[in-house]
Automatic annotation (TrEMBL), chains A, B, C, D:
Name of the protein: TetR family transcriptional regulator
Keywords: DNA-binding, Transcription, Transcription regulation
Domain HTH tetR-type: 18-78
UniProt superkingdom: Bacteria
Any GO molecular function: DNA-binding transcription factor activity
UniProt keyword RNA-binding present: no
Species of origin: Streptomyces antibioticus
Lineage start: Bacteria, Bacillati, Actinomycetota, Actinomycetes, Kitasatosporales
InterPro entries recorded: DNA-bd_HTH_TetR-type_CS, Homeodomain-like_sf, HTH-type_TetR-like_transc_reg, HTH_TetR, TetR_C_22
Length: 221, 221, 221, 221
DNA sequence: GATGAATGAGGATTCATTCAT
DNA sequence: TATGAATGAATCCTCATTCAT
């Protein structure tokens, strides 16, 4: 005798439903890719999935929820594909190798799942991240932070976060350029992105080992 | 009824028109800032400007044109404010100084004209830059390229472009973080952005002079 | 697997069906109460009942049918609770007593079954009573008419009907006010409603007995 | 340079706009009458008015606003037609005459403006009056209260309100019956309604003059 | 019986743009 | 020029009802 209609029932789903959800997410991915997240309409997604709008709303309360679920599944798949870490945590690994590998993996993943880029696209107004992007962003951020912390175990948390934010931002920017080009040009941008990140992180890591890699770029005087 | 209607009316009309345009652009800037470019509606802009939608369309054929004109004027003002170059072209200037100054100027300009960020926001779909952003992007790019070329006179054009694209991308990413924070945190992000760019460019410049990179890139003089 | 499937299964099925129906009606009552009949959705009723929409339609062909059945059961329960008559039919009973008792009962019933009000709510368009309300209305009307006829045995049928309609209408109006208030205010409205009806009926009844009306109907003791 | 888009500008309107508004309100009245307020859709109203949905929304932010404006205009017209008072305020006027006249006027007004009934229709859930009906209800209530206070100058305010609420409720109920019938039957219901109200009010007024109209009708023995 | 999936027309509302005055 | 009116397709979302399993 439930009095509270609000309460989320765990909703037993049928196999057909699961298939529909997958189909809808696929359609959403396709639409997000071709029009961008903001311009994508739920009707367009339903149409692309070959179902009626009502069906879409049986599984998702709104566009945001679709994006969130899509992001969740993507992160899940990323984890399954590449394991918990994006790169070897062995601090002995040269930074260049680690970063290079991480970027290669990220890029490969992005090319396999082009919707990733659309979902990663930041807020139109700085500081006002919508929930749909926030979850994805936060997850990515924490993965990057984990990766960094293995190289910078002594860095204070705030700094680590800042560095991770910077890296993610730079990565997104680089990705945009990479995806916007093809062939040799694309490869060149990949190299460029790696260069930016490696050079950014190198001095920080160097500090860690007590190696003065030449001086550089600390935050503190 | 002015003394000399023949001569003055046409002028007046234009003067009034100019005022209208300025008024509309100001309103557009305000609306773009508070809702983002995509979500901004022409009706909202007209309302904000205190004119009717019809009036808006008397001066601009569509929303895109408003953004383009706004971008043009911003670039123009930038040029007027900071001169043709964003930084001293003297190649003797240490890179750190030059980049630091350029970024400081860019950021100052952005804070004075917050709409700049809204207009700079990249394409939702990589490779498909809308015309409204394209013009601004191209202009910025070429200014950066100019700046770079004074440091890297021997670099091939394609490489220069690539580096400029990278710099611009990184700058946008950094700006987003900067604008998304306040106070000390914001300052920290400013330092971080400078670090990323300086470290990225250092080796390129160093190569040029045969100097082993290894100096540079602190925040404090 | 029961011992005697032949005999018990059919029964069981019906028993289960009855339970389902009761469950659905209870849910419907709850939803009708909280949103009103018009705004109530069959999906919401099914959800509230903890069953699927399909199940609901196994027992009721449409929303209307639910309301009708609910109304029927309410009338049935009313009869069971208060007997065939709403008040003693003894014409010797003072009108005041009879009417007061009838109203008290009606109100008590309404408070026990708040959905009653939702179902009683008249037609949005005069003269076009929907079937769902019509049945309930007709039943109530005839009960009131019966009650009246014991006091006005000589009144022509048309007049009796008219008086009954008036009484029912007034009662509904009063009920709305009563339910819309609480505590002492509510009690005051109950007294007011009784006053209206008693004063309305008094002369009619008085006529019957040749008594010059002149007793009764103040608000204050 | 208005910063606040919320602020309601007084909106200079053109003559055409005024005509459209009138046309839309007329259409709304028609639709409210034929389907009831709740079931009426803005699209249907626009269609009835022969304009596009967008046009409707140029003048009204939503359905509620249409109802409110319609109600306002009706009350305005009522005042213009019948003057500030619904009936002579002369306390010497026999109650019967005054009430009879007031009801006749109300009914005449309702017959001229059948939408009045649709707008008067109370809340689906007692106590939760929607804004659109509330305004109309409050206005009517206060007019009735004014009328009553000329007959019951000594009654405390709370009682006056209660009596007015009762009268309004009874009136609505009666109106429903009246509009639901025609010809002689309708007339009979008009008489009946008058009887209810006059008999309800008579003792109250009688008290005022120190005339014991016979005693009572209290709740308690 | 029971379930959840599916429907699709219809709901309110918005918006870039055009038009008559 | 300037205005406010007008458009109509498109937006998101809901709901009574039916269907396959």
């Amino acid at each position: 005798m439930p009095d509270n209609p609000q309460k989320e029932q765990p909703r037993r789903r049928q196999a057909r439903g699961e298939r529909r959800i997958a189909q809808l997410l696929e359609a959403a991915a396709s639409v997000f890719c071709s029009t961008g997240y903001t311009a994508a309409s739920t009707n367009a997604i339903a149409r692309e999935a070959g179902v009626s709008p009502g069906t879409l709303y049986q599984f998702f309360p709104n566009k945001e929820a679709i994006a969130i679920e899509l992001g969740d599944r993507l992160m899940h798949e990323m984890r399954e594909t590449y394991g918990e870490a994006l790169a070897p945590v062995d601090p002995a690994t040269p930074l260049e190798t680690a970063v290079g590998a991480a970027i290669d993996r990220f890029i490969a993943f992005n090319c396999d799942h082009p919707v990733f880029f659309a979902l990663m696209h930041g807020p139109d107004i700085p500081g006002r991240m919508a929930e749909e992007h926030d979850a994805l962003h936060a997850t990515l951020l924490s993965r990057i932070q984990d990766l960094l912390s293995s190289f910078l175990p002594d860095a204070p948390d705030a700094e680590l976060t800042r560095t991770a934010q910077m890296c993610l931002g730079v990565y997104k920017a680089g990705l945009e350029l990479i995806l916007g080009h093809e062939g040799a040009e694309r490869d060149a941008y990949v190299r460029e992105l790696k260069a930016v990140l490696i050079r950014y992180l190198e001095p920080l890591v160097g500090d860690r080992l007590g190696i003065a890699p030449g001086a550089t770029a600390g935050n503190t005087p």
